[in-house]
Amino acid sequence: MAFLEINKLVKRFGPVEVLKGINLQVEEGGFLVLVGPSGCGKSTLLSMIAGLDTVTEGEIRIDGRRVNELVPSQRDIAMVFQSYALYPNMTVGGNIAFGLEMRGVPKAEREAAIQRVSEMLQIGHLLNRKPSQLSGGQRQRVAMGRALVRDPKLFLFDEPLSNLDAKLRVDMRTEIKRLHQTMGTTIVYVTHDQIEAMTLATQIAVLKDGVLQQFGTPAEIYNNPVNVFVADFMGSPSMNIVKAKVKVNGAGVGVALARGNEPDLVLEAGRGSEGLRAHDGREVLLGIRPEAITDFDGADRTARTVVQAECHVDVVEPAGADTFVVTHLGGREVIARMRSDAVVRAGDRVGFAFNMDKAVFFDPAAQTRVA
Amino acid sequence: MAVSSPDTAVRTSRATRALIYALLIFFAVYYMLPLYVMVVNSVKPLDEIRGGAMLSLPQVLTLDPWRSAWSTAQIGVEPTGLAPYFINSILMVVPAVAISTVLGAMNGYVLTKWRFPGHNIVFGMMLLACFIPFQIVLIPMARILGLINLAGTTPGLVLVHVVYGIGFTTLFFRNYYEAFPTELVKAAQIDGASFWQIFFRIMLPSSGPIIVVTVIWQFTNVWNDFLFGASFADYDSQPITVALNNLVSSSTGVKEYNVHFAGAILAALPTLVVYIVSGRYFVRGLMAGAVKG
After folding, report:
1. Distance from CA of A52 to the nearest CA of B (A)
2. A103 — contact with chain B (CB < 8 Å)?
3. How far apart are CA A48 and CA A68, in angstroms?
4. Between chains, do A87 and B190 touch, taking CB under 8 Å as contact?
């Protein structure tokens, strides 16, 4: 049995259904990230796990125990809020110890716990300050300290990094990951930032409009998205999704992409061949990530199906580590990620290598995966 | 303030500036004049006032009018001075202000952080209480005070003022707590704090400005009230406003204007002190409510 189980969870506010039957399981020590665009219900789901929102239908179990009817303090959870929610009238030490104090832990033990946590988070020198005297990053640490000190079964993070500047966000992300690795705690983490989701999670749940789109490891979500929404949402720059026509030619299966006034570009279908065979002659959506389209020399040598073709270059965007090259295929812009020293100029015809092992195919109407 | 401060919105020439200051000084003097008259005449012997020199400084300085007003002047039938009534007022104001402020804070807390179906209707009704004229409730209130055996007592007056003040104190606290981050309450819930612990440990310690506003507002209103004091108090529980009226309008003997002036200042002193001590918080607190509420 999983450590955190969410079964057929439904949440309604009046007639509005914001969560439509969510099923999730997290093992002990797992790091579940709930990700999705704003309004997808991820924060509501977290609030329900915390006990701050009631459950309309379904069940939440933590460590085998049904918690639907328990108030937040009885669920053995800790939560880090987006605004940090530090008590403005208390010192840092008081903030960290408040939960212990409310649970009647003796003062000496509380002091020891504050010491332990403040050393771990390197906030020992701040203990006597008020939250208003702290920087954003320091507040973030204190908020985490307040959660860590009680040693709860489950940690909940509600977009904890969204109020920090870009550099600090990356630092704190690493720190959260390190804490998770050293302490082995179970975490549920809400974010709208797919990079945070990819870097932190052991499991990702992608939500949209109250419906769970896909639940799996970051690699599964990234490489095998179940529909166009997940494919498009995860990854930056996002996946190229273009119209293509399936062409079966004896044993070979290919997809043809329209190219302005040039003949169609036909790409061998790679790992999707078997699934596509039934769709001969029909239109599908080809999804291929920018890093699966490279220059010839940058192509993955272990890949089985690499198709090479010359295409017209519209725009070149050097980004330091890589060079993003934009071309036009199937009526849409397609971004390729080439090595930084690949020689490419806008207006040239350049060789592109398509790693079709990584390609995925969707039904254009239903937006679901076909191969 | 001769140098124009860098954050004024409109640049002004020297002449306009002089005009503005002249006007300000004129009105300041104009508004201070009554206080001047009161203070000056309260330290004059009665003869000087009768001579018609209301505005001149005293030729003979005396504190006798003050002593008389405080402890020996004729109030109604007893020559007690204002002292016992001053005590009455204190005994009425302190509990009335404290209770109505605490109740207002609790109402504000529940109306913003523990919302229940119909919370808006309840708040609307409390708001309405702010607009009920005093005179309308006199008779029903007298009946109720009689029924609960508090007629003519200080606790009875406290009750009247608490009931009347609760609309205002609730309004103040609700608007203040509306802007108070709800995530703090949620965090405290997860930390295991109870309903009251959240109120006393998280909400109240952050309510300094609005408590000051409420206390000043309630203190001034309750202290200055005449109608309820005159209607519901007995001789042994009359507040100072009623006693001052009895002092000034007593119809026997000589009108001791200097004593009346001293008595009026005595009666106004506590509200004056409250304003001077916490007036700047009053403005600040009102602004906080205005901007965020």
Report:
1. 7
2. yes
3. 8
4. no
Is A99 at the interface with chain B, CB within 8 A?
A: yes
3-state helix, strand, coil in chain B (%, to 5): 75, 0, 25
On the question of pLDDT at B6 being above 80, the answer is no
Neighbouring residues of A89: CB distance < 8 A, sequence distance ≥ 6: A130, B202, B205, B206
Coil vs helix vs strand at A163: coil
Q: Which residues of B touch A81 (CB under 8 A)?
A: 183, 186-187
Kindly state the average pLDDT of the residues B53-63. 81
Beta carbons of A336 and A327 less than 8 angstroms apart = yes
Across the interface, do B189 and A52 touch by the CB < 8 Å criterion? yes
pLDDT given at position B2: 46
Identify the helix (H) or strand (E) that includes residue A359.
none
Q: Does B118 touch chain A (CB under 8 A)?
A: no
Q: Which of B191, B199, B210 would best serve as a mutation to test chain A binding (most A beta carbons within 10 A)?
A: B191
The separation between CA B20 and the C-alpha centre of its own chain, rounded to angstroms, equals 32
B267 min Cα distance to partner chain A (Å): 37
User: What is the structure's pLDDT at A303?
Assistant: 84
A83 and B181 within 8 Å at the Cβ level: the answer is: yes
The band of B289, judged by pLDDT with boundaries at 50, 70 and 90, is: very low
Query: Which range in B20-34, B62-76, B224-238 is most confidently predicted, on average pLDDT?
Result: B20-34
pTM: 0.79
A82 to chain B, any CB pair closer than 8 A? The answer is yes
Mutate to test the interface with B, among A77, A80, A81, A140 (most CBs of B within 10 A): A81
Cα nearest neighbour of B185 on chain A: A85
Q: Is the pLDDT of residue B252 over 50?
A: yes
Give the type of residue at A306: V
- DSSP string across A228-251: HHHHHHSSSSPPEEEEEEEEEETT
Instruction: Name the helix (H) or strand (E) containing B223.
Output: helix B208-224
Mind telling me how many Å the CA of A143 is from chain B's nearest CA? 10
Touching check for A89 and chain B: CB below 8 Å?
Answer: yes
In a 13 Å sphere around the CA of A195, the CA atoms on its Cβ side amount to 10
Q: Of A64-68, B71-75, B285-289, which gets the smallest average pLDDT?
A: B285-289
Q: Please check whether residue B129 is in contact with residue B259, taking contact to mean a CB–CB distance below 8 angstroms.
A: no
In angstroms, the CA A102 to CA B189 distance is 10
**Hey, what are B93's tokens?**
């104001």
Residues of chain A with pLDDT under 70: 1
Q: How far is CA B111 from CA B172, B180, B195, B202, in A?
A: 12, 12, 13, 16
Residues of chain B with Cβ-Cβ distance to A72 below 8 Å are 186, 189-190
Q: Tell me how close the Cα of A240 comes to any Cα of chain B, in angstroms.
A: 40
- Residue B9: what pLDDT? 65
The amino acid occupying position A89 is: N
Binned at pLDDT 50, 70 and 90, residue B26 comes out as very high
Provide the β-strand partners of residue A207: A212
Most confident of A187-191, B62-66, B228-232: A187-191
Candidate from B183, B189, B205 with C-beta closest to A72: B189
Tell me what pLDDT residue B230 has. Answer: 86
DSSP secondary structure of A289-315: -GGGEE-GGGS-TT-S-EEEEEEE--E
Alpha carbon separation from A181 to A168, A172, A188 (Å, rounded):
20, 14, 14
Report pLDDT for B246.
85
